[in-house]
Amino acid sequence: MKTKFLSLFIMLVLLAGIHQAAAQAARFFRIYGPAATQIIAFQPDGAMVWSNAQPGATYTVQTVLSLPAGTNWVDYIQLPTTNNIHTNRLVDFHPPAGMTLVPAGSFIMGNSIGDSDVTDASPTNVCVSAFYMDTNLVNYGQWQSTYNWATNAGYGFDHAGSGKTKNHPVQMVDWFDAVKWCNARSQLAGLTPAYYTDVGLTQVYTNGQLAPTNVNWTANGFRLPTEAEWEKAARGGLSGQRFPWGNLISENQANYFGNTGGYSYDLGPNGFNINFTTGGTPFTSPVGYFAPNGYRLFDMAGNVFEWCWDWYAAPYAGGSDPRGPDTGTYRLLRGGTWNGFASSARCAYRVVNDPTGAFDGIGFRCVRGF
Predict the structure, then answer these.
(1) Residues whose CB falls within 8 Å of the CB of residue 243, separated by 6 or more in sequence, listed in order
(2) What is the pTM of this model?
């Protein structure tokens, strides 16, 4: 199927027959064009969205019902390799419920805009494989459901977690709680857990504060995002911006503590976001309250900080799928929080925390493989 386009960011509405077939079974797509063209998303109406279209150019979209035997890649970007050769991979039409596909590809991780107060995030080129990410923060109702199943299945948590209402983000959970909850969510869903206490990957991590150094990175179960995965997802396909949508922030876009006098990029208003100051602290907001970013992810700035997998290190590693150092003292938080300034909601801003620390401004969301 070949079509010409006249804009830099376009949508191709798929044929009715393709869309109907996709509703019955997974369908896989890839695109060829004159540049490193990347499919951004599939909209609910079946529209395919991609970028880097050249005016007047011809593009070819290929689709199949199943992948070749032994192939489990579902990412869809042309990945640059040596000698300017590109490799094409295929995309799954239907992400898991409540998740969105973050496409594979390279991006500039870190403080590429040059904010002087960010000194531990020098711009670094990183290539990340495709993955699924929760469109929303894990909410309190979701946490409770899996937590209740897990505690009856031999899991032990350091904290029971809390939330303002079921549709607000869970908070008051430490890093170990989040990791164990990921495993429990995987088992409850019939997926392969990611975290283990043994090299042979047979003993699922369920108890204690022993950091699971044995990770099945190819498992199809849930896990915490790496710092690189989180930042790529937060940027939503944009490059060189402070926030998931651009360089300025206001309380119409995120839940944070306004301080217009302290930050030139903060449009405020000042203080806590007035929409959420009822009922006492924490002044969290319902998940999904604000507009999503380019990958259709909500709350990638503000509301609660999000646990990441990595131990903190500076500088962080570039390259392909970096996962941080093997040991450390502090784990990483990203994304900003309801009682934090706009500065902490920037895509490149890094916050460290003891993995045993649980506060009312810390939550998480999950990612998973294929």
Answers:
(1) 249, 253, 254, 301, 345, 346, 347
(2) 0.79
